[in-house]
Amino acid sequence: MIIDDGMLFRAAGEKDAATLAKLYDQAARWMLGQGIDQWKPGDKDAEHFRARMRDGEVWLAEDADGRLVGAYELWWSDEEAWGVQPPVAGYVHRLMVDRKAAQPGAGMRILEHAEYRIARTGRERARLDCVSTNPKLLTYYRSAGYRVVGEFPSKEAKDGRVYGVILLERRLDV
Questions:
Q1: Is 114 helix (H, G, I), strand (E, B) or coil?
Q2: Which of 107, 106, 128 is nearest to 172 (CA)?
Q3: If DSSP codes are grouped into helix, strand and coil, which group holds residue 12?
Q4: In sequence order, what DSSP letters do the residues of 24-79 get, joined into one string?
Q5: By the 8 A CB rule, do 163 and 37 touch?
Q6: What values do phi and psi take at 56, rounded to 5?
Q7: In the chain, what are the helix, strand and coil shares in percent, each to the nearest 5?
Q8: Which of 66, 69, 115, 137 could join 102 via S-S bond, C-beta 3.0 to 4.6 A?
């Protein structure tokens, strides 16, 4: 467990998979309510998060009282969006915040934790992507020091829908 500014970070375990799916659905509903067409409730179930735990890392952020305030996935490659790359980056996915439980700035603290985890492995870049039609999220990541390095215009969703994503990265101090 890592304590950071009142947030406790811990690696997710099998027992957390259903909770992560609920957090994802909550975040997806919030996005839709804000007019952001990025995530769909029901798209990521408990098995999705179990698979991510096997293939990479999934982290939970809790407050001092042990309440879940957010989570994220950390991958060590993302060939679908980024192609084959040398092992110089970690890829942040599904950065989620519980809007009812989290304090302002929680999302940025969670992102910083992901960057810390990446840097600890000696990798010098944090990478992520966001849907091309989400200018608010793009602005958010840019304010966190990320720069646009490309676009993948034809990512395919589970339902067959094709959409574009903007590729962003940030150099880390290693």
A1: helix
A2: 128
A3: coil
A4: HHHHHHHHHHTT--S--TTSS-HHHHHHHHHHSEEEEEE-TTS-EEEEEEEES--H
A5: no
A6: -160, -130
A7: 35, 35, 35
A8: 69
Task: Give residue 59's pLDDT.
Answer: 97
* CA–CA separation, 119 and 160 (whole Å): 35
Mean pLDDT by 10 residues, the chain (174 residues): 73 96 95 86 95 94 92 95 95 94 89 96 96 90 97 82 92 89
Triad 81, 86, 89: Cα angle to 5°: 70
For 143, phi then psi, to 5°, come to -65, -20
CA separation for the pair 161, 152 (Å, rounded):
14
List beta partners, residue 130.
166
> Quick check: 127 and 82 in contact, CB under 8 A?
yes
Which amino acid, 57? E
pLDDT of the residue at 1: 52
